[in-house]
């Protein structure tokens, strides 16, 4: 967004269009850019327009507040549905926990972005198909395909959320990068609300305990569960109406943890050489190895999303380049272990799912690493690093859909 603003600073019509497409992101990006362009009269006018009366917190329009309140109540209702209908909680949440969160967020962005009827109908159809499919899978099945579908369903719904977030006229790579940045800001805001809620809950329970009232069980069953269900949509609302609140926090976290993750990975790989365990013969160790890989990949993605839009710091790009190179080694080990296990013991749904994910991550990492190296050597622009993120997001969406919807049919629900 900053690059678009800078490019169109002398084009009032285009600048107005950028502002109307995404007002919170525009305001945050413009305020960050303002010190560099403050001498421009048009920039001064925009700054005064955007920040007039900004001393008072902006909590959105009345309709937006009502919408978010209703969405929070709906999420809480879905979380309490097993108790209301006497359903088995473990079975319900294993299959439906994603539907407590994602449908309300998708609806929020569909409403905010003014998606047309055709797009809304398509998103609604995908959500309905997902609900029906995951709940008609054999009830007594404990096979791998059921577990794989439940594990990959959040990723598929997350991709639908990304589509609702970024699908508007003129949306491109920058919108997908904006979606990744939104996820980082959402994680920070959710953590803040959860910490605040945890402190408040502890104080409330202990204060009532002092007068002899044990409210721990009813408080957890109603206040905590309903609060947890509402946290994502409330956090989203806060990040949208107060873009400056956490927009500067997630880049700092990414910059701080990137070198930490790099050192940790190098030390971990070194320690693995002297360990008695290896991912080739130890299934649990391979699972942990892949979980580590996904976590580091997520950190790289969020860091690159920031680098691809704002940074010109060569040190940060160097750290990301080294981190991607080391992660390629981790991915190579995990991929070799999966191929070894398939060669020795044959194909199973779990092994095929992990193989596909590892191949996708490997291709993505190679592409990102090439772009980072180009930015480091100044052979290409740093914005291309961010564009490399947007290219693969639809591919991850397709793969998650294959695992969710096709694996149970291909492997006969085994």
TrEMBL record:
<feature type="transmembrane region" description="Helical">
    <location>
        <begin position="352"/>
        <end position="370"/>
    </location>
</feature>
<keyword id="KW-0812">Transmembrane</keyword>
<protein>
    <recommendedName>
        <fullName>DUF4153 domain-containing protein</fullName>
    </recommendedName>
</protein>
<keyword id="KW-0472">Membrane</keyword>
<keyword id="KW-1133">Transmembrane helix</keyword>
<feature type="transmembrane region" description="Helical">
    <location>
        <begin position="145"/>
        <end position="165"/>
    </location>
</feature>
<feature type="transmembrane region" description="Helical">
    <location>
        <begin position="285"/>
        <end position="305"/>
    </location>
</feature>
<feature type="transmembrane region" description="Helical">
    <location>
        <begin position="186"/>
        <end position="213"/>
    </location>
</feature>
<feature type="transmembrane region" description="Helical">
    <location>
        <begin position="382"/>
        <end position="411"/>
    </location>
</feature>
<feature type="transmembrane region" description="Helical">
    <location>
        <begin position="120"/>
        <end position="139"/>
    </location>
</feature>
<feature type="transmembrane region" description="Helical">
    <location>
        <begin position="317"/>
        <end position="340"/>
    </location>
</feature>
<feature type="transmembrane region" description="Helical">
    <location>
        <begin position="252"/>
        <end position="273"/>
    </location>
</feature>
<feature type="transmembrane region" description="Helical">
    <location>
        <begin position="219"/>
        <end position="240"/>
    </location>
</feature>
């Amino acid at each position: 967004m900053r690059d678009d603003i800078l490019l169109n600073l002398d084009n009032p019509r285009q600048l107005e269009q950028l502002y109307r497409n995404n007002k919170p992101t525009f305001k945050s990006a413009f305020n960050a850019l303002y010190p560099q362009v403050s001498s421009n009269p048009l920039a001064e006018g925009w700054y005064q327009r955007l920040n007039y009366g900004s001393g008072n917190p902006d909590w959105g329009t009345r309709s937006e507040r009502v919408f978010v309140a209703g969405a929070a109540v709906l999420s809480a209702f879905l979380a309490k549905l097993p108790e209301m209908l006497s359903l088995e909680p473990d079975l319900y949440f294993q299959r439906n926990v994603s539907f407590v969160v994602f449908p309300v967020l998708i609806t929020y962005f569909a409403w905010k972005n003014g998606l047309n009827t055709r797009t809304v109908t398509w998103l609604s159809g995908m959500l309905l198909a997902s609900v029906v499919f995951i709940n008609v899978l054999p009830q007594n099945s404990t096979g791998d395909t059921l577990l794989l579908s439940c594990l990959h369903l959040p990723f598929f719904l997350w991709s639908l959320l990304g589509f609702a977030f970024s699908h508007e006229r003129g949306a491109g790579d920058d919108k997908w990068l904006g979606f990744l940045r939104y996820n980082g800001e959402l994680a920070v805001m959710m953590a803040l609300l959860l910490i605040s809620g945890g402190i408040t809950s502890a104080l409330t329970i202990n204060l009532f305990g002092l007068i002899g009232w044990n409210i721990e069980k009813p408080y957890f069953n109603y206040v905590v569960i309903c609060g947890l269900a509402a946290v994502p949509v409330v956090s989203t609302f806060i990040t949208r109406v107060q873009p400056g609140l956490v927009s500067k926090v997630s880049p700092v976290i990414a910059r701080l943890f990137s070198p930490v993750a790099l050192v940790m990975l190098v030390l971990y790989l070194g320690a693995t050489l002297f360990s008695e365990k290896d991912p080739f013969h130890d299934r649990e160790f391979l699972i942990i190895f892949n979980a580590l890989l996904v976590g580091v990949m997520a950190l790289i993605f969020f860091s690159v999303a920031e680098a691809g839009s704002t940074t010109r710091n060569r040190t940060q790009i160097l750290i990301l380049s080294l981190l991607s190179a080391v992660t390629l080694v981790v991915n190579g080990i995990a991929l070799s272990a999966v191929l070894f296990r398939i060669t020795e013991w044959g194909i199973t749904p779990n092994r095929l799912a992990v193989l596909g994910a590892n191949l996708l991550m490997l291709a993505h990492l190679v592409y990102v690493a090439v772009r980072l190296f180009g930015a480091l050597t100044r052979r290409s622009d740093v914005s291309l690093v961010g564009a490399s993120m947007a290219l693969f997001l639809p591919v991850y969406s397709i793969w998650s859909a294959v695992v969710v919807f096709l694996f149970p049919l291909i492997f006969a629900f085994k």
